[in-house]
Design brief:
Number of strands: 2
Shape: globular
Order of helices and strands: HHHEEH
Strand order of the largest sheet: 1-2
Protein name: Transposase DDE domain-containing protein
Distance between the termini: 45 Å
Keywords: Membrane, Transmembrane, Transmembrane helix
Strand content: 5-15%
Length: about 100
Amino acid sequence: MLTAPLDNLESNMAYMVFASLAWTLKTWSGMLIRVKGNEGQRRVRREARNRIVRMEFWTYLNSLMLLPAQVIRSSRRRIFRLLTYRPTVDLLMTMHDHIRQPLRC
């Protein structure tokens, strides 16, 4: 705490709250990947889930969140076009599929 990034206690407290929220959202996004299906699918999904949960925050930010994309809005729909490919785009698409599908009990 002696090397806090800001100059007063309130600012440092807000900084720590934002850092905690960012870390929690990173972990939750990894935990949203459901490990179901046949043995091959479970293994791949478990590896993806563990990879996201164990990732450092800056790696998560740079590899999954800061992707160059084009957003196209046309008649009641939005199209997100990724402009580059990285190996972590597959993780992003897996997260998207599991967030979009409702849970079935």
